[in-house]
């Protein structure tokens, strides 16, 4: 029985270490919140991503780090982190029920898609390209 538990623990650790090698190395910096009023000035000009979250939510902080890396690699990307506690009215207007939530907005100013939860860097890059944000 002890051998089986030991083998399972080793497999779990190996699986975890391989997974972490696949992901993009993220630093400690996260994309700083932008007041929605400032991001709103860009709505309807270019496709964009609005990330709704909080600077006190662990998953939102993880998304903030991913978004920081996106902006670092693609400075032209219209990607904004909106702090729901600073912009409560916007949260209601966008019907945000859980955080983090990513809302993709077209160049016409319409919501074209949304995702709730953390999305990995590589998957987010593909989505941003598909929505012509990158």
Structural description of this entry:
It is globular, with a radius of gyration of 18 Å. It is built from five helices and four strands. About 13% of the residues have low confidence. The relative contact order is 0.18. The protein has 134 residues and is an alpha+beta fold.
Could you tell me the mean pLDDT? 83
One letter per element, helices H and strands E, the order comes to HHEHEHEEH
Identify the CATH class: Alpha Beta
Q: Which range best describes the helical content: under 10%, 10-25%, 25-40%, 40-55%, 55-70% or over 70%?
A: 40-55%
Unreliable stretches (pLDDT < 50, length at least 5) are: 5-22
How many domains? The number is 1
User: Which percent range describes the beta-strand content?
Assistant: 15-25%
Fourth-tier CATH superfamily name: Glutaredoxin
CATH architecture: 3-Layer(aba) Sandwich
What strand line-up does the widest sheet have?
Answer: 2-1-3-4
Shape: globular
Rg (CA only)? 18 Å
Number of strands: 4
Task: Work out the helix count.
Answer: 5
- Termini, distance in Å? 52 Å
Helix-strand blueprint:
Elements (H helix, E strand, L loop, with lengths): L1 H21 L13 H5 L7 E6 L4 H16 L5 E5 L4 H6 L7 E5 L5 E6 L4 H10 L4
Parallel strand pairs: 1-2
Antiparallel strand pairs: 1-3, 3-4
């Amino acid at each position: 029985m002890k051998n089986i538990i030991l083998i399972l623990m080793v497999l779990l650790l190996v699986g975890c270490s391989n997974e972490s090698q696949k992901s993009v190395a993220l630093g400690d910096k996260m994309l700083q919140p932008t007041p929605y009023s400032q991001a709103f000035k860009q709505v309807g000009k270019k496709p964009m991503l609005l990330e709704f979250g909080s600077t006190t939510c662990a998953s939102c902080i993880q998304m903030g780090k991913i978004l920081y890396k996106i902006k670092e690699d693609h400075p032209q990307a219209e990607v904004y982190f909106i702090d729901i506690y600073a912009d409560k009215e916007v949260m209601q207007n966008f019907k945000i029920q859980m955080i983090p939530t990513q809302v993709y907005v077209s160049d016409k100013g319409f919501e074209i898609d949304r995702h709730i939860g953390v999305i990995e860097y590589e998957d987010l890059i593909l989505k941003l390209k598909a929505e012509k944000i990158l």
